[in-house]
Design a protein that fits this description.
It is built from 11 helices and 12 strands. By secondary structure, the protein is α/β, with parallel strands linked by helices. A 10-stranded mixed beta sheet has the order 9-8-7-6-5-4-3-10-11-12. A two-stranded antiparallel ribbon has the order 1-2. Helix 1 crosses helix 3 and helix 5 packs parallel to helix 6. Bound molecules: iron/sulfur cluster.
């Protein structure tokens, strides 16, 4: 279960540890003390870069999480990201490197969601093999990724393969998540995934109301399945999140409060807010939120960002992009089942074969058309 409310003493201890870790890692990279101190000062100033605050983190299974794209601390994956980040800030490498990537591992899915962005390829013949997925993840690690989220289709529909892949990367400096509708998950499977080294599960839940969610997903029982799997996931010591596709019909103060309450009651670590887009099944439809609805979501994010309450932390990529610019193709990627990399799951204009990406060409491949959106 996620444990909230870090005490003042724990905060001081945490920042002292992070500071000494920074000094230790930085000394491994440079013995130039003035350079080291000015770099650490610059990093501390950049603390409000949209990547959350450690002091506002949530504890799960001995690790602290404060942003969905930053691995839980302490862990080898966190150390790896931290080292890379320091090296970049010290000017030793020319690119900030990836934080995370989605990797689609299947085209199979038993659902019929009204917003599906992969609708054209869903339930087409499976093309990606286990070896190809392993090679993709290895490439992403070489590009700096310390978090991988397996998606699809429904990743649980290839459960034995998923389990083997999670197991394969158990001792690597990377944390693995899955993004699922919950269909096909059982308590036993969740325990197996945790035992194999999975870090967390993102459950798609698009409405707190049972019937409304089931209607959205095109299948009865989806809401019930998510709720029971969320409980099993938290009880197994996995970081647990909801992904909410926000549509104009859903976004109101009343619905957001009810949704937040449900997530809080279930002790979730994160809620990931995604704005509906006219892509996939929504192509050609008016699904964009009104400015007033975006304001409501932004207010919810801002409230969670400073509160040390029992609420889950909120991840809201579109708000991040509006404030700081888009990190798609630089700090995060999406790789589909054909081995094509895109800046994110919703920006499919210019695919690049994952095998053609290198640390030095990564940040030059894409310019996001939605940055100012
Ligand atoms: S669960 Fe995901 S892949 Fe399956 S239909 Fe829904 S949105 Fe599409």
């Amino acid at each position: 279960m996620a444990k909230k409310n870090i005490t003042k003493i724990n905060q001081i201890t945490l920042y002292c540890r992070l500071f000494f870790k920074a000094v230790r890692v930085a000394f491994g990279l440079t013995h130039n003390l003035p350079n080291l101190l000015s770099t650490l000062g610059r990093i501390l100033k950049k603390n409000d870069s949209g990547y959350g605050r450690p002091s506002n983190g949530r504890r799960v299974d001995g690790k602290l999480y404060w942003h969905m794209h930053i691995p839980g601390y302490p862990s080898p994956a966190f150390d790896q990201l931290f080292r890379h980040w320091l090296a970049y800030n010290l000017g030793w490498i020319s690119h900030p490197g990836l934080c995370m990537s989605y990797v689609a591992i299947t085209k199979t899915c038993p659902l019929n969601c009204e917003h599906c962005f992969e609708w054209e390829s869903i339930n087409q013949p499976e093309t990606v093999s286990e070896q190809e997925i392993i090679e993709t993840v290895e490439r992403l690690i070489n590009l700096g990724a310390t978090q991988i989220i397996f998606s699809g289709g429904e990743p649980v529909s290839r459960f034995p393969l998923l389990l083997r892949i999670v197991n394969h990367f158990h001792n690597h400096s990377v944390q693995l998540w899955i993004n699922t509708s919950g269909i096909g998950l059982t308590t036993d499977r969740i325990k197996q995934l945790k035992k194999s080294g999975l870090t967390g599960i993102v459950f798609s839940l698009d409405h707190h109301d049972r019937q409304a969610h089931d209607r959205f997903r095109g299948r009865e029982g989806c809401h019930r399945q998510v709720i029971s799997s969320v409980k099993a996931s938290s009880a197994s010591g996995l970081a647990t999140a909801f992904a909410l596709c926000t549509t104009p019909d859903f976004v109101s103060e009343k619905n957001l409060e009810a949704y937040l309450q449900l997530a809080t009651d279930l002790s979730l670590t994160f809620i990931q807010i995604l704005e509906a887009k006219p892509l996939g099944k929504y192509a050609g439809q008016k699904v964009a939120l009104e400015p007033s609805q975006k304001k409501l979501l932004e207010a919810l994010y801002d409230r969670a960002a400073v509160s040390r309450s029992e609420h889950p932390l909120i991840s809201y990529p579109e708000y991040h992009n509006r404030r700081y610019g888009c990190d798609g193709g630089k700090r995060h990627l999406y790789v589909d089942t054909e081995g094509r990399a895109f800046p994110c799951p919703f920006c499919k204009t210019v695919p690049v074969a994952i095998r053609d990406l290198t640390p030095s060409n990564l940040s030059t491949k894409w310019v996001c058309p939605n940055t100012s959106g």
